[in-house]
Every structure is written in structure tokens, then in C-alpha cells.
Amino acid sequence: MPRKYRVVHEPYVVEWLTKNFPPGTWQTNVRLGEPPEELQRLLAPGVSKEILRIFMGRADAIVFLPDKTVIVEAYIRNQFGKVEQLLYYEWLFKRDRRFKDRWNLPVEKILLTPIYVPFYAKFAEQFGIKTVIYTPD
In degrees rounded to 5, what are phi and psi of residue 76? Predict the structure, then answer.
């Protein structure tokens, strides 16, 4: 019988956020980027382009601090590509007009994981991504 899939990364990320940042400074599952013009042209008149954000990236969390923005991606299971996702999310963030007032602030990228994977942390470090080890209580 196949194992049942269980969502673990969302409560994991929220627990870490609440322990490390003030309330009201973070959001989870944040859609990033502007829908491409090619898709916007396909919309019926009067339909908001916001519906197209489903095709854009979605960061596990973004923290809005006075001096910087932090983009967080959880690495729970053996799913490579998290480094690439963080780089893509930063790229999208700097082009999303909703965050235009924060484009000039530094962006810190965090790979949040319960298990230290040395070669992956070293790979992430090359791209300015900080690996944070967090093991829930």
C-alpha cells in the first residue's frame, strides 16, 4: 500500500517564522512576479490579471523587515532545485510591482531545512543563499 503524502513544510515554516520574526512581518505561500503580457492578452474583458498569478512562482515565505527582505524556501524532502527556486523568486520579486518600494533593499535568501546536507549547503552558498538548520521541538 502506498504511503500517504503528508504536508509538513507549511507548519514547519510557520513555526520557524514565529520563533524568529515579529508578528506581522511575514507572509507564507507568496505568489511572485507579473503575469506575462502574452497571457494577459488572453483574458476576457473585465477579468483581473491577478487570476494569472497561479502561473507565477510561489515562495514558501517572505519576511519584510525595515532594512531587508528575506525569501524563505523549505527543503524538507530530497527535492533538489530549491537553490534554483530561490534565485528565481528573487528575480521575480525584483520585477513584481506590488513590491516596488522594496526593490532597493537587499534580499536575503534562506534555505530552511531540518537536516544539514553539506554538499547542497555548499552549493547554495555559492549563490549567496544561507542554509538555516531548524529542528522543531
Answer: -100, -55
